[in-house]
Each structure stands twice: as structure tokens, then as C-alpha cells.
Write a structure and sequence with these properties.
The complex is a heterodimer. In chain A, about 45% of the residues lie in helices and about 15% in strands. Chain A is α+β, with helices and mostly antiparallel strands. Chain A has a three-stranded antiparallel sheet with strand order 1-2-3, covered by helices on one side. The longest helix of chain A is centred in the C-terminal third of the chain and has 21 residues, at about 120-140. The relative contact order of chain A is 0.18. By secondary structure, chain B is an alpha/beta fold. Chain B is built from 13 helices and 15 strands. Chain B has helices at about 25-40, 50-70, 85-100, 115-125, 145-150, 170-180, 230, 270-285, 290-305, 335-340, 360, 375-390, 395; strands at about 15, 75-80, 105, 130, 155-160, 185-190, 210, 225, 245-250, 255, 310-315, 325-330, 345, 350, 365-370. Classes of the chains: A alpha+beta, B alpha/beta. The interface of A and B includes residues 7, 11, 39, 40 and 63 of A.
Chain lengths: ~140, ~400
């Protein structure tokens, strides 16, 4: 993906983030995610039924990278079952940590493949991932796993 | 001024984050290396020449601090790891024993976490009542608001001399006088003031004072707790161990040393203290008056120039210290800081450890510029130029 396209995707998701501030009801699970080292702070809401993420929403203040990343990742996770979610997160973590990863699984998320060039922004690109991992933990605990 | 004394400035960095920490002049670093290379020994312990030199150099710094803040005697000066430790010692080592449930402590919403969280701990532990003195429209603390907040239950006023966000300089002389009249303990967090302006503990009737060396050209990990002698005598040590006791016996009889040693358990940060002493010499050699004027000039110069840039909002144009809070319209503060970093300009983004100020400011995060003596108008010009180019901010940030 060329730099220009990459930038356009990130900027579009920053300026028009997917389901940001979408109203949610009590059936959504809320997970907070923040970076100690910076000032990003988001509440992410998931509607999960029968092991499938049916809908998402997020609220809060974060930088261009965190916000756009939340938008792209959350949009992608809608309709995925929890096993698929785990695979996506694993591949994404590999990419951020400069390991071999599967581009086909990550789709638009590959816009962050160069983020290692700005080490101080890596945490920004991992902000929503931390929330999804916590969601998986919470659901795992609930199911007694 | 004095730029040649700072090795860090050889790196083509514009450093406007002096409220967080400052660069160190060569003489400070040399003094610490001199200790490590030429008379490295423990303090208060040895009968040999280099250990004796450590004692002399270490205690000399206590005298320097005493003179710097106008204390009555060097016994009133305790070396700590920094302002945070000093404030914790005041609150948890003294106030926890001097106050009772229902006593009121006045602070403000623009205090640094270090002057808030220890009080909150005490509130949980013993039921003291924390009250916030209202700030005016410029988010500054006025004498009248202090006066109107005092009740018969007020036992402590604990405030920063200069805040690390808005940068307002509090009228500590008047507040100190009021505290004396009404028999209120006056705790002053001088972390943001003492690097820039004179603080006299007697003239201002300060009960306890806290500050860090690293914000005043000194090393990290060292700072000062000042307490009026009769109050410091009552501070209960949070840490006990070596260097602070006269004796202890197997029948559990213990006698602690007199102040200040009683409050300095363990091997002290000797190199840090020596470096702090050199930083004080360096600052005094330049003089507070010159430093204050230089920072004021820079701030005025910046504010005048930034007026032309329509999409930059300044939140504290009227505050008197060298701190400026700003945002670029519709840009998250952290993105602005990342953008400026591209031009090697260091500013801080966030809530600057004053998280309660959100209530007053109505905005969570800002960028902060904090000037110091080595900053120049040319550096301000570089910042202005970068801000003028901020229309393309996302080409750089993303």
C-alpha cells in the first residue's frame, strides 16, 4: 500500500470514525482502555451474543493514530466470532512488533505496518487492541474458561 | 543565555518542557562526576579523609539550601528524593498526627497530583475534609477566594506557589500572613517556583516547603523538605533504618537521631545532593531577577507572535510565569506535540498531572510550553514557524 493511500485511510477514519459516540444500551459490555505513557483514553462498547461481536461503539479522547485504529479495528470485528477475533489480534500484534504476519487477515489494518518507525506511537496503535483483549478475558472468565 | 554551559543544547533540540525537567549545566554534571571519581564514600560513616570530605560537601549543600530559601537554620532542611516525597512526608508523617477527623484542608483544583493524592489518602484514613478554594475566571487563585474559603475548621492551606498548568503565581506573602493570624499550617509546593523566583520561608510564614532539584538545573532523584524547626521536630519518620538512629537495643529500646538526620534514613543520594548544591550556585550566580525577566520577555514575545496564527488557542494569556497552555483548533494535543517533535521542538501534551483542572478548563488536554533561562527568541521563532505550518499537520503526524 502506498503512503498516500495509507494516509487517506487513517485520516478518513480519524475524521469520520466508525460508530464513535454511537448511543448504546445496557446490553453492551464496556471496556476502558488508556495509555499510561500518553493521554489517550477510550471507552469501547461491545455487543456480544453467542460468541459473536454484533456491534461496537467507542467514546473518549485520543490521538489520530489511536482513534483511526479503533475505527478500523472495531469496524472489522463486527460480525466476527471470538476465535476469528483472536486470530486477527495475533496477526496485528505480530505486525506491530515487526514479526512476519498475514496481510490477508489484517486487511486495512496494514496501514499501521510502518508504525514501528515511530516507537512512541506503537502504544497508540495498540490502544483498542488492549480493550479487545480485556473483552476476551472478561468473556472467558464469565464462561469459566 | 548561558547556552554554552549546556551540552544537551548541542543536539539541535528546542526544549520547551522545562516544567517537567530542565537540562543540566556542565558544572552540575562535573560536580557529580568529581564525587564519583575522586571522593566516592558514604556520608556520616567513615573516619577516613574522603569520607570526611563527603560529609563536608554534603552538609555545605544544606547551608546553601538554607540560604536559598531564607530558613533559620540548616537543621530545617531535609534532603528527599524530590517534591513528591517531601509532600508525602509532610502529609503522612506530620499532618496524619497533627490533624483530627473533620479538620479542613484547603487546596485547589489546579494542584499537581503530589499535592492532592496524599491528602486524599489522609481523607480516607482519618476523615479530614478536603475543600477546593475556587479559582477566578483566569483559573488563578486570589487572596479574596482564600480568605472566603477559611472556616473555623480550616487547619491547613496547601498550595503550589506557581502552578504547573496555568502558571499563575500565588500571593503567598498575603496567604502566609493570613495563616499566621488564623493559626493555619501553610504548606507550599515550590517545585515550579524555586527554579525561577525567590521563595523566602520566613517572610512568607511557610510551615512546610517542598521542591525538586531536577526542575532547577539539578539532577533527578533529589529534592528538599523544609519545615519550621518546631514542626519538623514532630514529623514522624516514614522510613526508619541506618543513618537516622542513635542506638537500638535487644530489649527494643530505640533512640532516633535529631532532625534533619532522623528524616534521612538510608544512604543518602550524595551525588544528587552535591549536584543540587552546584545547581544552586549556578542559579544564584545568574540571579533570579535576570531569569524571571528573561522568561517574561520570551513569553510576551511568543504571545505577541502567536496572535497572528488564527487556529492556535491560548488558555492562560494572563498568567505571569513562563508557562503557556495552548491547542491547535480541532487537533488533539498529543498530535500537536508529535507534530512539533518532527521539528525537534519538545512540548508536553496532556493534563500535566493536574487532572481536576478539567472541571475548570472545560477541556481535558492541552500542550504546554514552559520556558527557562537557556531558551531564546530564535527558538520561539522556530516554534511560531512550525505552528504556522500546522495546516499540513496530518501529513506529518500520520
Amino acid at each position: 500500500m502506498n503512503k498516500q493511500l495509507r494516509r487517506e485511510i487513517i485520516l478518513d477514519n480519524y475524521q469520520h470514525p466508525f460508530h464513535k459516540d454511537k448511543e448504546v444500551d445496557d446490553s453492551y459490555i464496556k471496556v476502558n482502555t488508556n495509555n499510561e505513557s500518553c493521554i489517550d483514553n477510550l471507552d469501547i462498547y461491545f455487543k456480544v451474543e453467542n460468541g459473536v461481536i454484533l456491534d461496537v461503539s467507542f467514546k473518549g479522547e485520543a490521538c489520530a493514530i489511536s482513534t483511526s485504529c479503533s475505527s478500523i479495528l472495531l469496524r472489522y470485528l463486527v460480525g466476527k466470532n471470538l476465535n476469528e477475533v483472536k486470530v486477527i489480534l495475533d496477526e496485528y500484534n505480530k505486525m506491530i512488533n515487526e514479526e512476519e504476519y498475514d496481510q490477508d487477515i489484517l486487511k486495512d489494518l496494514i496501514v499501521y505496518s510502518d508504525i514501528y518507525l515511530q516507537p512512541n506511537r506503537k502504544n497508540c496503535a495498540l490502544l483498542p487492541v488492549k480493550a479487545v483483549l480485556r473483552l476476551l478475558d472478561n468473556l472467558g472468565e464469565k464462561n469459566g474458561n | 543565555m548561558n547556552r554554552e554551559d549546556f551540552k544537551m543544547l548541542d543536539n539541535d533540540i528546542v526544549y520547551f518542557d522545562n516544567g517537567a525537567t530542565t537540562f543540566k549545566p556542565n558544572c552540575v554534571i562535573d560536580s557529580m562526576n568529581d564525587y564519583y571519581n575522586n571522593y566516592c564514600a558514604n556520608a556520616h560513616r567513615g573516619d577516613y579523609k574522603i569520607s570526611n570530605k563527603v560529609d563536608i560537601e554534603y552538609e555545605k549543600v544544606r547551608e546553601k539550601v538554607k540560604d536559598l530559601i531564607g530558613a533559620s537554620s540548616s537543621e530545617e532542611i531535609v534532603f528527599t528524593s524530590g517534591a513528591t516525597q517531601s509532600l508525602n512526608m509532610i502529609v503522612l508523617g506530620f499532618m496524619a498526627h497533627a490533624l483530627k477527623s473533620g479538620d479542613e484542608v484547603l487546596i485547589t483544583k489546579s494542584e499537581h497530583a503530589s499535592n492532592v493524592l496524599p491528602w486524599m489518602e489522609l481523607q480516607k484514613k482519618m476523615g479530614i475534609v478536603i475543600k477546593y478554594i475556587p479559582l477566578n475566571d483566569d483559573l488563578e487563585l486570589t487572596y479574596d477566594n482564600v480568605l472566603n474559603s477559611i472556616t473555623s475548621k480550616t487547619k491547613v492551606i496547601s498550595i503550589a506557589h506557581v502552578t504547573n498548568t496555568v502558571g499563575d503565581i500565588r500571593p503567598i506573602y498575603e496567604i502566609g500572613k493570613l495563616c499566621k493570624e488564623k493559626n493555619i499550617y501553610f504548606v507550599v509546593d515550590a517545585a515550579q517556583s524555586i527554579p525561577h523566583r525567590k521563595v523566602d520561608v520566613i517572610e512568607n510564614n511557610v510551615s512546610f516547603l517542598a521542591f525538586s532539584a531536577h526542575k532547577m538545573l539539578g539532577p533527578t532523584g533529589v529534592g528538599v523538605l523544609y519545615g519550621k524547626k518546631e514542626l519538623l521536630e514532630e514529623v514522624v519518620p516514614i522510613f526508619v533504618g541506618g543513618g537516622m538512629n542513635n542506638y537500638f537495643l535487644s530489649n527494643f529500646e530505640v533512640e532516633y537521631s535529631p532532625i534533619p538526620n532522623r528524616l534521612e534514613a538510608g544512604t543518602p543520594n550524595v551525588a544528587g545532593v552535591i549536584g543540587m548544591g552546584k545547581a544552586i550556585d549556578y542559579l544564584m550566580n545568574i540571579g533570579y531577577e535576570k531569569i524571571e525577566k528573561h522568561e517574561e520577555d520570551l513569553k510576551r514575545y511568543f504571545l505577541e507572535k502567536v496572535k497572528r496564527i488564527k487556529n492556535v488557542k491560548i488558555y492562560n494569556p494572563n498568567s505571569k510565569s513562563g508557562i503557556v497552555l495552548f491547542n491547535i483548533d480541532d487537533v488533539f494535543a498529543q498530535d500537536t506535540a508529535t507534530f512539533l517533535d518532527y521539528y525537534n521542538i519538545c512540548v508536553r501534551s496532556g493534563n500535566h498531572c493536574a487532572k481536576m483542572l478539567i472541571d475548570e478548563l472545560g477541556i481535558k488536554n492541552t500542550c504546554r510550553i514552559s520556558f527557562y533561562l537557556y531558551n531564546t527568541k530564535e527558538e520561539v521563532d522556530r516554534l511560531i514557524k512550525a505552528l504556522e505550518n500546522s495546516k499540513n499537520i496530518f501529513d506529518i503526524v500520520i
